[in-house]
Amino acid sequence: MVNRPRDWVYVFGILLALGLLPLAQPSEYVLSFLYFLFSYAAMAVAWNVLGGFGGYLSFGHVTFFGTGAYVTGLMLVHWGWSPLITAPLGGLAAALLALVIGYPTLRLRGPYFTVVTVVTVLIAKIVVLNVPLTGAAMGLWMPFPPWDPFTSRVIFYEAVLVLLLAALLMARWVQHAKFGFGLRVIREDEDAAAAIGVPAFRLKLGALLLSAFVCGMVGAVHGYDRSYLHPDFMFDLHPSIMMVLMALFGGRDHWLGPLVGAVAVMITDELLTVYVGTEAARMLFGLLLIIVVLFLPEGVISLRLPKKPPRAAAAGEGVSSP
Amino acid sequence: MLVEVVQAVVTGLLIGLTFAVLAVGFSLIWGTTGVVNIAHSAFAVLAAFLSLVASRQWGLDPIAALVGLVPLFFILGVVLHEVLIKVAARRTKELGLASMIFTFGLASFMENGMAYVWGPGPRVLNTAYTGAAVHLLGISIPLTHAYGALLGLATIGLLYGFLYHTFPGKAVRAVWQQRDGAALCGIPLHRVTALTYGVSIASASVAGVAMALIYSFTPATYMVWLVNVFLIVIVGGVGSLLGAAAAGLIVGLVSSLSVLVMPFVWTNLALFGLLILVLLVRPSGLLKR
């Protein structure tokens, strides 16, 4: 991977500039679209730490999203604490759940781990649907945010933008730290990684906790924005699938990939849903998923980054030509 | 109490057989080619919808509709292999994980296609014998359950005959046991795997009809069926026909017996718990040799 030190200057510059966007009094539609884009992007970037760098495919991250939403929602209902302030606690609760889930299951590999992640979503949904504390099938009603509609859109917009920035900084740090190198070695060959002294289990667990923490915080903000929580949409597989699609589409080997993927997927999704309808849009996404995995396994971002550093490419050719 | 237990055991075994037939094809593909075919149960749901159309349009009994469905799904399976799986096997490094993603894309394509054509609401397959039951020693067996289980039993029997007593079937098992070894013995891998996909998807169509006799279904039902399939395959061991059959019976029994001791909403939890427990204790399957 070629280092392009200025990429991150552009990216963070654009995102900080977007933070000033509300001053221009944009329509609530624009703010709301970008709000969804940023929250999905933050989760996809976080998902990528385990799923992309580590190669442990999880369809279960929506569990952490829902956990964050419910924990902070309950704090608001019972104690009157604003989820915007307790969001880190929601993240911590999600990370704690990730520890409980991950400690036994991260020993599983490949498809087996993925199956368990799907099952955790289904279990979480059943539990939340049948426990009185969470409002069960009635759902959890929270007090509305105390602002007028435009102000509240701006506040939630800024909140997820901050989360996205934090997620990007975290992913960028992981990628360049020993942590990220270890994760990628695990993805390539876990037994070899363990043999050369990479603490595989600790790294995987760390990656899971970090990504769960971010998803829990996004869930906290999102739950407050909805003001009503129900397991049918807080523990739905669809957001999990979107995270995976965004990360894979953008490119899972770079911290920026999921953000690129999120922008592309959200814009396509919005256009398709508006002009051809939900079912046709989701059919096209299914096809897109097939095409990306088969023909663009390193994601869209690989079109911009050179595949190999020039010298290594030249050396490679030297070896292969007789 | 005894009657209730016997009733639960009988129902569990009948349901277990229909689930088993859904699982065997999935298990066969996973075992022979390493592909985790998420779309397997989506094919079953498609067969359910097509049999519904056949019975609405031409008044065909769903079981009679299988005469057309089985060859059609055999061809679909071969096409799936030729168009997607061969390309994927050539282009991806880790077929297990990559296949989970792109067959998921296929399943989501099929789900939304079915929702587009037939609508997302639940459907019920009505037959001449829906609602009828056989009463025997105080227990009652709905005819739909009985026919579903018989279909399952017949399909598993046929598959057993195919895999253990015919030459192409033995080739399929050889590829499952040792891919390179089978190739060295002169077994044409591509033709054998194409055959495996045909047989597997054809068995999915039988399973879809058998399940539709018993349960209502929507385009999204494939996810629910898939979880049961995973459970059965993991308990039975990947690639094993008899393991899947036995595990199907176990899963059917657990789900019907757990209704006796806990509220209905928690029974799925018992199954999921069983799945995770088996994975953690013996990831290669409880029943595998």
Total count of strands of chain A: 2
What is the count of β-strands of chain B?
2
Q: What is the gyration radius of chain A calculated from CA atoms?
A: 20 Å
Low-confidence stretches of chain A: 309-322
Q: Which two protein chains have the largest interface (Cβ within 8 Å of the partner's Cβ), and how many residues from each?
A: A-B, 39 and 40 residues
Mean pLDDT of chain B: 88
Count of discrete structural domains of chain B: 1
Order of SSEs of chain A: HHHHHEHHHHEHHHHH
What does it look like?
The complex is a heterodimer of chains A (322) and B (289). With 322 residues, chain A is mainly alpha-helical. Helix content of chain A is 75%, strand content 1%. A two-stranded antiparallel sheet of chain A has the order 1-2. The model of chain A is unreliable at 309-322 (pLDDT under 50). The model of chain B has no long low-confidence stretch (mean pLDDT 88). Chain B is 77% helix and 3% strand. Chain B has one domain: ABC transporter involved in vitamin B12 uptake, BtuC, CATH 1.10.3470. In chain B, a hairpin with a 2-residue loop joins strand 1 (133-136) and strand 2 (139-142). The chains are: A mainly alpha (322), B mainly alpha (289). The A-B interface holds A 55, 57, 104-105, 107-108, 110-112, 114-116, 118-119, 122-123, 126-127, 129-130, 237, 241, 244, 248, 278-280, 282-283, 285-290, 293-295, 297 and B 36, 84, 87-88, 91-92, 94, 96-98, 100-102, 104-113, 115-116, 223, 227, 230, 234, 265-266, 268-269, 272-273, 275-276, 279-280, 283.
List the topology elements:
The complex is a heterodimer of chains A (322) and B (289).
Chain A: H1 7-19, H2 28-53, H3 61-79, H4 83-105, H5 110-130, E1 140-141, H6 149-176, H7 178-188, H8 190-195, H9 200-226, E2 228-229, H10 231-234, H11 237-250, H12 257-275, H13 278-295, H14 310-320
Antiparallel strand pairs in A: 1-2
Helix pairs in contact in A: 1-6, 2-6, 2-7, 2-9, 2-11, 2-12, 3-4, 3-9, 4-9, 6-7, 6-9, 7-9, 11-12, 12-13
Chain B: H1 2-33, H2 40-58, H3 62-91, H4 95-118, E1 133-136, E2 139-142, H5 143-165, H6 167-177, H7 179-184, H8 189-214, H9 221-236, H10 241-261, H11 267-281
Antiparallel strand pairs in B: 1-2
